[in-house]
Amino acid sequence: MNKLTLLLLYIVFAFANVVTAQTKVSGVVLDKSNQPIPFANVVFKGSNIGIVSNEDGRFYLESPNTYTALIVTSAGFSDKEVPLEKAVNYNFKIVLGEAEALNEVVIYTGKTSKKNNPALDILRKIWERKRKNGLYLFNQYQMQKYEKVEFDMNTIDSAFMKNKLFKGMEFIFNHVDTSDVTGKTYLPIFINESVYDVYGDNKLKKVKENLTGNKMSGFNGNQQILSFVKDLYSDYNIYDNHLKFFDKSFTSPLSRTGIDVYNYVLKDSAYIDKKWCYNIVFYPRRKNELTFKGDFWVNDTTFAIKKINMGVTKSANINWVKDIYIEQEFEVENDSVFLLTRDYMMSDFALNKKEKSKGVYGKRTTLYRNHKFNIQKPEKFYKEEVNFIDNAVYERPPEFWEENRFEKLNKDEQGIYKMLDTLQTVKRFKQLYNLVSILGSGYIEFKNFDYGPIFSTFGYNEVEGIRLRVGGRTYFGPNDPWRIQAYTAYGFDDNKFKYGVSGKWMLDKKNRLIISGGNRRDIEQIGASLTTTNDVLGRSFASSALFTTGSNGKLTNINLSNISIEMEPKKNFIVSAGLSYRTLESASKTFSLDYYTTLPTPENPAGVVESMVKQSEANIQFEFMPNRKTIGYGVERDLVDSPYSHFFVNFSYGLKGVFDSDFAYEKIQVFYRQPIIIGPLGRTNITVETGKTFGTIPLGLMSVIPGNQTYFTIENTFSNLNFYEFVTDQYTTLQWNHDFGGRLFARIPFMRKLNWREFIGIRAVHGTISDANRAINASGLPYNAPEKVYWEYNAGIGNIFKVFRLDFSWRGNYLDMPDAHKFAIKGSFGFYF
């Protein structure tokens, strides 16, 4: 289940006792013409508790203490003291007047100066010392970490509570509370607690976290939700130049490039924990960029951050997230060491960014304690376990949590556990949960069996016509040590049944030693990808697209059987070996895989031709994916949606004579993909594939450069090539794609509100064919190889209506080839942050 599906689940299940603080106030800051003043500084008088208003001038402030006045300041306006006559004050309108005198304590207006700005002088000193603060001061460190993650449905009102959706679940509304950040009502619907022992070595640049306890409300044992939570709130360092949230790179207010992105104003100075600190307010220079607004307090001697509060600007080009709010607090270990002790992050997920729209709060609170330093551990201590899970960690008794919680749960948080456990027994809730689960996974769940994937039920191609497919898999839980999958399909034009069946069994959990095997008889578009796969049940989108850009009868009947064994001796390093047997035969009268077994001679000008390829093959593969994150510990794992490098090598050997196999050959294939996040410029993906076959082989075993005759973008294909337009036995491809994330469109005033995102890319391939392979070709298909590099380039617009992307692709050369596509438009759907 992907991230957005889980968020949809929380929104659908969002289900009054209000615990009030001593002082609450919300409102809007305006100028005399009744226009909102963005990024005004609002603090309780006589305290360091404050917030910066958003782009619409709105703010909310809360404290458990009693305060009788606010101080509101903004660059270019006179400071204003606002009395608070009640403990709870909502919908204040605070009007600021422009500064009237030259000696007014106001230095900057609008965009702040990059020269003679004391705030920037302090910022430069922060840069100089940032690698000498906190944990970086020591060779090694140890500490305990407590993490609490909570999801809440927000903006609860009486109409929402009366919705028929919640019939039979009305008891959940007894847990409604009020956010101390936004002032909105919310209903807790999920909570997860974790305790870790953390070890770090700055010399080795290694960090290890040992999970010692985990407790989750309502969804115990669901590793997908746990991994989703971890991915949603990845760790970050406020001193880094860029902070990654939801696969987006935000410019940190402490970044060395911050001067070009933020306005900075030195607003105040005061003692905090007996340390003299400066208060600096920051807000973005431009709209629609991935930036924050807020303020921080920094010590005047170490230039270490004591406290920082910041929120994402409303106009930031990010989907489904209305707000992100971050607080970090640091404590003084001694005169020179400031250590992070509290990290709080709240995200407001919603379908739109309107002020009154309903959504889901995702809140993470992380606390640290018991720091120890310079206790060295051997390097092997930091080696990550490949596939280890200690079930006792998820079954800790109440006494463990009483002892290891760094802060007690409040009354509402304690009630979530009981409420969610009760909710699991409600039939209506189960029905809603199952519906969203089907949309996320593509499978309909039955007891120990899943039907699907439902999205493969219908298909179309020129050979089968309309194609119907049914299938399923065994499923006892996400950590199953074995799994069997099967399907059958029927084509209404060829009147034939097809099928596939496969099974996997994990023999050794620690090293993920897995054996697998299966058989498939089906129709396939071979040559839809270059890199070899042993997935028996795999089927290319090219074989069953409902609509195509041109005629395609170049389909193949395939009968594939294989057995394989794999293991993961090191985290994300996989070694596998296998044996396969396949027969290939044309599925269409307009397409041939014929090859000569005896070449034509003057005595026998027709030669001897064979139509079916029978081939046995052995292969060994190596796959390395550093920084890949996975979900679960079973024989099949899901991937967490985060960028990682991917390196793959395959060696194949044709076993002539084994099971009447026809050809002997050796093949090597290498695949490498590298994602690169380039700070404010977006994200680049570079993919290189290369391969060579040694020996004589027919068309069915050649390396076909993958074309794309669908109307949809297909990864690692060439948008302007037809199927079989280029055929090779030696090839090298290069693909480069870059996502600017909307940073260019954000500079164009009339396009800012669209929040579109820009993509550019280029694809190129070089390949050859040996004379021997040309000689045995009897298919009638002309062998064309891109001996002169073929290339095409593309530009695209994404985030159209938040779910659609259009790619425009141009052919760079080979323009005079038959049926050449000089220009193509492809589309794709997806839900992205």
Automatic annotation (TrEMBL):
What keywords are annotated for this sequence in UniProt?
A: Signal
Name of the molecule in the record: CarboxypepD_reg-like domain-containing protein
The answer to whether UniProt assigns keyword Signal to this entry is yes
Signal peptide stretch: 1-21
Mind telling me which InterPro entries this protein's record contains?
CarboxyPept-like_regulatory, DUF5686
For whether the record's keyword set contains Hydrolase, the answer is: no
User: SUPFAM superfamilies, per this entry?
Assistant: Carboxypeptidase regulatory domain-like
